[in-house]
Amino acid sequence: MADRDSELRDEYLVKGYMDANIAGYEVKVDPYHVDFWRKAASGTWEPNTYKILSHYLTADSHYCDIGAWIGPTVLHAAQLAKKVICFEPDPTAYRYLRWNIDLNKLKNVSSYSFALAETMSISRMASHRGKPGDSMTSLLFDNEGSGVDVLTMQWQQFLDMSPVQHIDFMKIDIEGGEYQLMPSLKEYLQLNKPVLYLSTHAPLLEPEQRLAKMQGLIDVLSIYDKCLDDDLQPIDINTLVSEDALEHFRSYVFTD
Predict the structure, then answer these.
(1) In this predicted structure, what is the pLDDT of residue 252?
(2) pLDDT band with cut points at 50, 70 and 90 for residue 140
(3) Which of 12, 14, 112, 194 is most buried (CB neighbours < 10 A)?
(4) Which residue range is the domain that position 235 belongs to?
(5) 84-101 average pLDDT score
(6) pLDDT for 141-198, tens place per residue?
């Protein structure tokens, strides 16, 4: 079986892509992440994320993906939405993101290789697992030997330069960067109220920081009428400071 897997990878490398059916759509994907794409195609990678995108996105939607990695959610959203904008600051991951966008000739997708954060700066980021380009790259870490310098920009600075002003649905999955980013988004969220799908990463914080950081998210997100879990079931927003939320990676939907 291992030999067959190796043969298939070689075939994909020669072709420059592999074919995959992900969440009901046929796509072409890069040949360097075969194991991940197989997991996504089997439906075992974040199935609720695909369900949430399918639930909220329509042919008129403008979708924003903050923390796009190599593009598993971007490829899906591009089939559903009118316009997709996405951000991935890790230069290794961004190369594959752009490759996957180009493989599928997605004309409705605009991608940007910088991080959204509370201030404009040059910052270091890395994966706590020490592997450039993996899905856990974060501004929280700077592992020696694997960290990279990235540009960070405020959301409003981006909007001031961008023709995109209206967002219907925003996904934020940035491996702990949400604790810095969310306060800077409060005014925009309050004025525009896009549906927000937020992944939280309290276990990446020091234990003594977790409660205050998650409470900070509540302070921003209480502007929304409804908080849902990733099964789209209504929950109390104060669930974000429960023991479960402080000790596990949890995702939530906020909407009016």
Answers:
(1) 98
(2) confident
(3) 194
(4) 46-116+155-255
(5) 97
(6) 766 566 889 999 999 999 999 988 799 999 999 999 999 999 999 999 999 999 999 9
**Cα gap 256→254, rounded to integer Å:** 7
Q: Are residues 172 and 201 in the same domain?
A: yes
**Number of domains the chain contains:** 2
39 plus 50 within the same structural domain: no
Residues 54 and 2 in one domain: no
pLDDT digits (tens, 9 = 90+) for 48-69: 999 999 999 999 999 999 999 9
Residue keyed to tokens 């409804």: 226
Helix axes 207-221, 178-192, angle to 10 degrees: 10
- Could you tell me which residue, 139 or 161, shows the higher pLDDT? 161
Pairing of strands 109-112, 83-87: parallel
User: 31 and 73, same structural domain?
Assistant: no
From the number of C-beta atoms within 10 Å of its C-beta (0-12, 13-18, 19+), residue 208 rates as exposed
* Distance in angstroms (rounded) separating the CA atoms of residues 237 and 128: 29
User: Hey, which bits of 103-225 come out as E strands?
Assistant: 109-112, 115-116, 121-127, 137-138, 148-153, 169-172, 195-200
CATH of the domain at 193: 3.40.50.150
Residue the block writes with tokens 């897997």 = 5
Whether 59 and 99 share a structural domain: yes
Residues 218 and 237 in one domain: yes
Q: Is the domain of 165 the same as that of 242?
A: yes
Rg (CA), the chain: 18
